[in-house]
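FORM 7B: Structural annotation worksheet

SECTION A. Query
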Amino acid sequence: MTHARLVALLRARSVQQGDFVLSSGRHSAFYIDCRRTTMHAEGLSLVGELGLAAIRRLGWRSDAVGGLTLGADPVAYAIAAASAERPPAVHGFTVRKAAKGHGTTRRIEGCFEPGMAVVVVEDVITTGASALEAARVVVADGGVVSGVLAVVDREEGGLDAIVREGFSVHALVGVRALLGTP
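SECTION B. Predicted structure
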């Protein structure tokens, strides 16, 4: 029932019809603004519960979850919050798009330390570029990526691109479920 509720909430809040240019530069007749669901109180709860359950069901070791800001942030924080009630705890982190020019100058902020096993999260995967960038930053900073978890897969080759880079990947919802197509 929880998965069905997430699909319904994504359909109602996040799927828009029209003519859109995606971050990949491609045109699309629909846009999925997942943040309208992942930043919604009920959506946050559902994503946390379902994301944590998927990570554990897949057997991915995870000390922390995070990804490229901004889309990944609420997903990571939802999973971290859900884990507080279902130990062991999984903490959150954010990967900046560029290193800060002051302070620690890190690209990864939050609860990340070299040697940690992490799951990279993403709101929507289209080409996989954002998730791959986050995974590469984590690896370069000494982390071990156990897998990549997305809320929505647009089913446009992104999951395959991530697998080709050597990472396991899973999406909670496929675009066909959202659009009601077989």
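SECTION C. Observations
The chain has a mean pLDDT of 95. The first strand starts at residue 15 and ends at 21.

SECTION D. Sign-off
Analyst initials: ____
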